[in-house]
Design brief:
Structural class: alpha/beta
Number of strands: 5
Largest sheet: 5 strands, mixed
Strand content: 5-15%
Distance between the termini: 79 Å
Shape: elongated
Strand order of the largest sheet: 2-1-3-4-5
Number of helices: 26
Radius of gyration: 30 Å
Helix content: 55-70%
């Protein structure tokens, strides 16, 4: 059917795909709205929106005459209606009729469309599958990952080769942290080439790269470059595809190009206000460009819909960097209460509380937080698995804050629990610090145990501490220099900077401390953060007083 009216709609015009009201609330007609949207989404010229937010002033409305078995497409723009096309579904094949109507409507808007992928293939011919995918996406946006996963797995049983179903499942699995499952789902879906429409294929490719980067961190930089190339290719071929723009923005964040990512994400935030991943990455881009207040607002929005473990740390960092101490305290108190009630990462939260107090100069409060956390660790030593170095440095800070006596009962409990070799060494190091604090003499027996006849950073740090308390500055500096050669820990660098300052080498001390502070505040999405808020040893290193 030739278009009834031709409207020259400029490429990139934001358009809402909608269904005219008045239809029965039945799966078929709910699916019709989704088929219509997905048929239009294949256009490289329309910027298809899912909500009437921001700058949307045009809508492509699908009207259905149930009795007459006909469809019409109307462009509604600036208070005017333009009838574009009509189609019939007398044979009962509603998805095919929607395909024909969308193709004709796109032609009527000045586009010369290529043959589309039928929506019955791209989504499913079964209305209950189509609506399940849609409902799962809504659940996922509201933080209901478990319910979304359940709905999608049920849809998969009905149509296991539907790329839209597998795309949704892959996104859920990646959000839950199961990157291997996400990769397998994407790989399977990308094999169903006859059923892939451009946007779904692109989303699957994006999720695949993110999943592979998560599984193999040593190759993450390669995957990030591939993600950037994917985003740039879509920007050329489908410049008005919002998901293509999102891929480009995410890739820029992962490659550290925060200034380039931020304007893209700010526009996407207006165009896709219900997508929490947009808010999350906008927060990261704002944090990476030094706009902490804007980052805090973005993370607060993301926290409404993303798992708490995704946003807790960057949200806290943003509040700290924005100078919102009251907001930070309230956030950390809330995280502590949730961890106590639901078994969350209590140790990590209390480390942040101690660091926050230390950074604010509230030394008594920092000492009390450290004491409370260490007592908890003595009852829950599994929290220390793989974190012996962190534990040793945390205890060292407590000693420097005057809490050496608080270590003794904690170490006694831990040493009775058959600790790993690494944790046993950490306990020995801390016991040595406590002994030096009490005697003002070197704990040579402990130093030798830690050194085991070789060179050891902990042995050097223990010796340096004894020299520090005895006022033996040159010997202290020598041991700290040895420790710094063996360890790049921020606390060791900060102690070395202090020793340089003590002997009058102020320019070297200032340069080392400045570089250390810059390193601690650096934002990188592929490397563990070392922000001073994340642990008392990092806060102590940042203060360097």
């Amino acid at each position: 059917m030739a278009p009834a009216t031709v409207v020259d709609l400029p490429p990139g015009t934001p358009v809402l795909a909608e269904l005219a009201p008045g239809l029965p609330d039945e799966p078929t007609w709910r699916a019709a709205a989704i088929w219509w949207r997905e048929a239009l989404r294949q256009s490289p010229q329309l910027e298809l929106r899912e909500t009437a937010a921001g700058d949307v002033d045009a809508a492509l409305c699908l009207a259905v005459d149930v009795r007459g078995h006909t469809l019409t497409a109307t462009l509604r723009q600036r208070g005017r209606d333009h009838l574009l096309a009509g189609a019939a579904f007398g044979d009962g094949d509603l998805p095919a009729a929607i395909d024909r109507l969308a193709f004709t409507a796109r032609t009527a808007l000045g586009e010369r469309p290529a043959p589309p992928v039928p929506v019955a293939l791209a989504t499913s011919a079964r209305p209950e599958v189509v609506t399940a995918v849609h409902d799962a996406a809504l659940l996922l946006r509201d933080g209901g990952a478990t319910a979304a996963r359940r709905a999608l797995r049920e849809a998969r049983r009905a149509d296991g080769a539907a790329p839209a179903v597998l795309d949704g499942l892959a996104a859920v699995e990646l959000l839950r942290g199961d990157a291997a499952a996400a990769e397998a789902l994407c790989t399977e879906a990308l094999g169903y080439t006859a059923r892939l429409q451009p946007t779904t294929e692109h989303r699957l490719a994006r999720t695949l790269l993110l999943a592979r980067a998560s599984q193999r961190p040593e190759r993450a930089a390669d995957r990030d470059r591939e993600l950037l190339a994917l985003g740039e290719a879509v920007a050329r071929e489908r410049p008005h595809d919002l998901h293509g723009q999102l891929t480009l923005a995410i890739a820029r964040n992962f490659t550290g190009a925060f200034a380039a990512a931020r304007p893209l994400l700010e526009r996407l935030r207006a165009a896709m206000p219900d997508q929490p991943i947009v808010a999350y990455h906008l927060g990261m881009a704002c944090l990476g460009t030094g706009c902490a207040a804007a980052a805090s607002a973005a993370f607060d929005a993301a926290a409404l819909r993303l798992p708490a473990n995704w946003v807790a740390v960057p949200r806290a960092i943003a509040r700290f960097e924005a100078g919102d101490r009251d907001g930070l305290a309230a956030l950390l108190d809330g995280l502590e209460a949730d961890a106590l009630q639901n078994g969350g990462p209590l140790h990590d939260v209390r480390r942040m509380q101690a660091a926050s107090a230390l950074l604010d100069g509230r030394l008594d409060a920092a000492r009390e937080r450290l004491r409370t956390d260490l007592q908890w660790l003595a009852q829950n030593p599994s929290a220390l698995d793989g974190r012996s170095g962190e534990f040793a440095e945390q205890g060292a800070v407590l000693v420097r804050l005057g809490g050496a006596e608080d270590l003794t009962p904690v170490l006694a409990v831990l040493q009775q629990q058959a600790p790993s070799a690494a944790l046993a060494d950490a306990c020995a190091f801390l016991a040595g610090l406590a002994e030096v604090t009490r005697t003002r003499e070197r704990a040579t027996t402990v130093e030798e145990r830690l050194g085991r006849g070789g060179d050891s950073a902990w042995s050097a740090l223990l010796a340096a501490f004894a020299h520090e308390l005895r006022g033996e500055v040159l010997a202290m500096q020598t041991e700290l220099a040895r420790a710094a050669r063996l360890s790049d820990a921020p606390l060791t660098k900060a102690l070395l900077a202090r020793s340089l300052r003590a002997v009058g080498r102020e320019p070297e001390a200032a340069a080392l401390q400045t570089a250390l502070r810059r390193e601690l505040r650096r934002i990188h999405l592929r490397q563990p953060l070392q922000h001073p808020l994340l642990g008392p040893e990092l806060a102590f290193a940042f203060r360097a007083d």
